[in-house]
Amino acid sequence: MAQALIGESLVTLCESCRSLAPSAGTDALGRQYCADCFARLPMSSITHIMEYLENTVPFQVGEQVQCRTAGVLYDGIGTIDEVSTDPEKFGTPVYPAFHVVLHDKAYPEAPDDCWYMETQLTKANT
Ligand SMILES: [Zn+2]
Predict the structure, then answer these.
(1) For site-directed labelling of 114, which of 37, 50, 75, 81 has its Cα 20 to 30 A away?
(2) What's the CA-to-centroid distance between 18 and ligand 1, angstroms?
(3) How far is the CA of 5 from the centre of ligand 1 (A)?
(4) H-type helices in the chain, by residue range?
(5) Model-level pTM?
């Protein structure tokens, strides 16, 4: 990847217009683009990026997981019924949030269902 430090900012060679500019984004093949060109990428490239991110999601709907609040307090075992990249549910495209319905609570006050982050979940052996 063509990168250079000019002054204080890291710039990259835009794959499309060949100008040196801060990288605004990378396509599915790892090519970098300036902000103008990245915004003008055909939708299929954006779709490929989203597909790439979806394929790297560590858990899928229907999977059984062990849940830990704050990664420490063990809540129990549940089933993922929704995966979200919505920031309101604390998810992002890179670190999605997982909604889990708990069916095997570790303690009575454990939530019936809750949003968890990847680091709070481990696959349950069922
Ligand atoms: Zn460009």
Answers:
(1) 50
(2) 6
(3) 17
(4) 35-39, 43-55
(5) 0.55
- Asked whether 24 and 35 are in contact (CB, 8 A), the reply is yes
Residues 104 and 76: beta-carbon distance below 8 Å: yes
Please give the Cα distance from 71 to 117 (Å, whole number). Answer: 9
Alpha carbon of 88 to ligand 1 centroid (Å): 32
pLDDT for position 72: 74
d(CA 29, CA 3): 16
Residue 101 CA to ligand 1 centre (angstroms):
45
Please report the DSSP string for 75-102 in residue order: EEEEEEEEEE--GGGT--SSS-EEEEEE
